[in-house]
Amino acid sequence: MKSLLFILSVIAAVAFIPPRQNQQYTVGEVIRKARQLDRDSTTVRLTGYVVKKQSDGWYLFVDKTAEIKVNIENQYLPVKPLDDRIAVVIYALVEYEINKPVTLKVNRPVTEE
What we know:
Strand content: 35-45%
Order of helices and strands: HEHHEEEEEE
Largest sheet: 5 strands, mixed, barrel
Number of helices: 3
Strand order of the largest sheet: 2-3-4-6-5
Radius of gyration: 18 Å
Helix content: 10-25%
Shape: globular
């Protein structure tokens, strides 16, 4: 009886562990796991390069695995202009919609690596 209670308490404790936040991902991993990351509202941490400004607030972010569109509000941009030769770290929420490209929305200041 005691062992059954112990097992049930362990199962209950594991069931309520929140998803890991700020885990380091690659762009390729984010694209593959986008549906789950969007559903969990997970903030992902990525290291790479902002290589191009596409439109107002939208940038192209790349790492060694893939590229993705990133929405960066002015309040999260660094004081120093973004340079495609300087690696940066971004923290962002994954935005996933069926039949649309996966995008990211930065939710913390962009910093140099």
